[in-house]
């Protein structure tokens, strides 16, 4: 039975892609990999194809035409994985800002710890970010404060992109369209899981800024996150969320609608 799949979106990650693939496949717990490449002109997809014979049955790729957005890359990857029976689905960056060793901790939080969603959190134990300028650290941290204030969630790192989902979570939340494509996508996914009453747990990680390649952050993506949170909260008043988990605790509230 297919058990664990890591989805990694890529655009111009030729400097990182082979190293991240080999690192994931070297872990003591077995993970399959799906690369979702948005037509990288630097040859990222070709490098993945070159490795598929070596890692046959474990390394897969979806090739898309052009930059279609982080959110749609993950959604396409999740749907691909669900159709093939994977039980635990992970999202992770290609640039080593997320340490692949932490995949095991995220998996254990769901498989052994009872979480439905395990979030690799930079802020659950202080501020664990390496190589970011102070301005970006403060922007990221206070973005979390802002999201908690608007949404009512208690998640310390709502914009985190290093996550493990149980398949039943994605089977439920992907029935409704996810509207955002950038960092607001990460917030919307957590908010939707929380509204349905799934148990979200934060697992401490150390986030290290990329040393190779170019960051995909832009002012447009940041604005989407800022204004999208308000839009998302208002829209939630017009949707009915049926709690999917019994025994919701005070730390895992479901808004009354």
TrEMBL record:
The keyword Glycosyltransferase applies. Pfam families: Glycos_transf_2 (PF00535). Keywords: Glycosyltransferase, Transferase. GO terms for biological process: glycolipid biosynthetic process. SUPFAM superfamilies: Nucleotide-diphospho-sugar transferases. The keyword ATP-binding does not apply. Residues 6-171 form the Glycosyltransferase 2-like domain. GO terms for cellular component: membrane. One of its GO terms (molecular function) is dolichyl-phosphate beta-D-mannosyltransferase activity. Belongs to the glycosyltransferase 2 family. This is Polyprenol monophosphomannose synthase. It comes from Spirosoma rhododendri.
């Amino acid at each position: 039975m297919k058990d664990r799949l890591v989805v990694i979106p890529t655009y111009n990650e030729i400097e990182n892609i082979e190293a991240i693939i080999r690192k994931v496949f070297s872990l003591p717990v077995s993970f399959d990999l799906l690369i979702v490449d948005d037509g990288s002109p630097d040859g990222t997809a070709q490098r993945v194809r070159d490795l598929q014979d070596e890692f046959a049955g474990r390394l897969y790729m979806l090739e898309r035409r052009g930059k279609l957005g982080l959110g749609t890359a993950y959604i396409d990857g999740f749907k691909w994985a669900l159709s093939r029976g994977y039980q635990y689905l992970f999202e992770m960056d290609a640039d080593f800002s997320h340490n692949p060793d932490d995949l095991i901790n995220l998996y254990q939080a769901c498989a052994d710890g009872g979480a439905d969603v395990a979030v690799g959190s930079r802020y659950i134990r202080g501020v664990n970010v390496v190589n970011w300028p102070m301005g970006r650290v403060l922007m990221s941290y206070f973005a979390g404060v802002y999201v908690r204030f608007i949404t009512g969630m208690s998640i310390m790192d709502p914009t985190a992109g290093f996550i493990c989902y149980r398949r039943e979570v994605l089977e439920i939340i992907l029935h409704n369209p996810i509207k955002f494509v950038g960092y607001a996508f990460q917030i919307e996914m957590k908010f939707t899981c929380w509204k349905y009453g799934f148990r979200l747990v934060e697992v401490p990680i150390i986030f290290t800024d990329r040393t190779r390649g170019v960051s995909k952050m832009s002012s447009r993506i940041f604005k989407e996150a800022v204004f999208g949170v308000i839009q998302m909260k208002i829209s939630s008043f017009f949707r009915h969320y049926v709690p999917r988990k019994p025994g919701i605790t005070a730390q895992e509230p479901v808004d009354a609608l």
